[in-house]
């Protein structure tokens, strides 16, 4: 199944409600509008004198509620979504999968129907992407992908926002990924197509993104290539990105640490990139593994802006889901 086909279950939603399941399901115009709205929302929220408990004067989500279901741990995603709902005038509820009947075997489809009776949108961080699709298929409210084993679209929208804040339009820029071809890498492949940037992924053959995802990018005009050579990926790059070598749910840590060690982002690798290249990491980082302290704490690193931008992009994604 192509990423696009996986995002099909829209039929039960009444316009203007929309699921945010994967970047591959958005049009270029939708993706661009979400980024631009996030920039505007950030300006409003960060005006002088506003505390973090600021509430948008228009309260655009005043009558909206969000249930956030976590099957895996989270710091950034949880706090940014909860603060987004608060700042837009709405309400949110955090639910840990194991504290729910979901953890005792209630089906995702039954849970979807029940939650749809209580709240206006559901955010899900799922062990398996299939659970997200099942939630979307059976919910009658928008469902948002807050990370699955397949993808992490909210994160990569924040990454694009961060790149553009520092370096202007990402179109035509070279982005290098070094490390595991994981969920974040997959959403970057989708983003490269949507935002017309070049993406070179350096991944060992054992941990490459699936061929069908690269084929999807090629079919859709993406400039996405794969190499096993991190230096080649980094050469003349405008941004170098990496992520943990052992994602939540991975059980083969020892093998991963060994195979991925040549892909570490360190000073030597950064020197291959353009002088003003950025370094990004979705966090949490495993310092000394996928990235050295001197890079993640160095002058090219924009990780704290990237983390904060989760808040601003989340608001824009929520508003898009509600057709606002
Ligand atoms: N980057 C990210 O999604 O972080 P959390 O796991 O803390 O939500
Ligand atoms: N690839 C990481 C991202 C964490 C935000 C994971 O899935 O654990």
Topology:
Layout: H1 3-6, H2 28-45, E1 65-70, H3 76-87, E2 91-96, H4 108-118, E3 121-125, H5 129-138, E4 143-145, H6 153-167, E5 174-178, H7 183-195, E6 198-202, H8 211-219, E7 223-227, H9 230-234, E8 239-242, H10 253-260, H11 267-270, E9 278-281, H12 293-296, H13 303-321
Parallel strand pairs: 1-2, 1-3, 3-4, 5-6, 5-8, 6-7, 8-9
Helix pairs in contact: 2-6, 2-13, 3-13, 4-5, 6-7, 6-13
Bound molecules: phosphoric acid mono(formamide)ester and norvaline.
Task: Output the keywords.
alpha/beta; 324 residues; binds phosphoric acid mono(formamide)ester; 2 domains; binds norvaline; five-stranded parallel β-sheet; Rossmann fold; four-stranded parallel β-sheet
What are the segments in which pLDDT stays under 50 over at least 5 consecutive residues? Answer: 1-9
Main sheet properties:
5 strands, parallel
What's the CATH H-level homologous superfamily of the largest domain? Aspartate/ornithine carbamoyltransferase
Order of helices and strands: HHEHEHEHEHEHEHEHEHHEHH
Per the CATH scheme, the topology name of the largest domain is: Rossmann fold
Shape: globular
Q: Roughly what percent helix?
A: 40-55%
Distance between the termini: 31 Å
The hetero compounds bound to this protein are: phosphoric acid mono(formamide)ester, norvaline
Return the CATH architecture of the largest domain.
3-Layer(aba) Sandwich
CATH class assignment of the largest domain: Alpha Beta
Structural class: alpha/beta
Q: Please report the total strand number as a whole number.
A: 9
Query: Beta-sheet strand percentage?
Result: 5-15%
């Amino acid at each position: 199944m192509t990423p696009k086909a996986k995002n099909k279950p829209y039929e039960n939603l009444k316009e203007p409600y929309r699921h945010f399941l994967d970047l591959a399901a958005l049009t270029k115009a939708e993706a661009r509008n979400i980024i631009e709205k996030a920039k505007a929302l950030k300006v409003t929220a960060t005006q002088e004198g506003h505390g973090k408990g600021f509430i948008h004067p228009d309260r655009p989500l005043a009558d909206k509620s969000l249930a956030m279901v976590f099957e895996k741990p989270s710091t950034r995603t949880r706090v940014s979504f909860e603060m987004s709902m608060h700042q837009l005038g709405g309400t949110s509820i955090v639910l840990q999968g194991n504290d729910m009947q979901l953890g005792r075997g209630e089906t995702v489809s039954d849970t979807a129907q029940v939650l749809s009776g209580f709240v206006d949108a559901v955010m899900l961080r799922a062990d398996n992407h299939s659970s997200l699709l099942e939630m979307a298929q059976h919910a009658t409210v928008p469902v948002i992908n807050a990370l699955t084993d397949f993808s992490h679209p909210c994160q990569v929208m924040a990454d694009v926002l961060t790149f553009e804040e520092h370096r202007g339009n990402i179109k035509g820029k070279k982005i290098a990924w070094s490390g595991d071809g994981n969920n974040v890498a997959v959403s970057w492949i989708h983003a490269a197509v949507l935002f017309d940037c070049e993406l070179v992924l350096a991944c060992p053959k054992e941990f490459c993104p699936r061929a069908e995802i690269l084929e999807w990018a090629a079919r859709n005009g993406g400039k996405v290539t794969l190499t096993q050579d991190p230096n080649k990926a980094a050469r003349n790059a405008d941004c170098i990105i990496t992520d943990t070598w052992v994602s939540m749910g991975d059980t083969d840590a020892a093998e991963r640490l060994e195979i991925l060690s040549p892909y570490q982002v360190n000073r030597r690798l950064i020197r291959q990139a353009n002088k003003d290249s950025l370094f990004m990491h979705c966090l949490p980082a495993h310092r000394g593994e996928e990235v050295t302290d001197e890079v993640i704490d160095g002058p090219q690193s924009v990780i704290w802006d990237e983390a904060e931008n989760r808040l601003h992009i989340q608001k824009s994604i929520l508003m898009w889901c509600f057709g606002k």
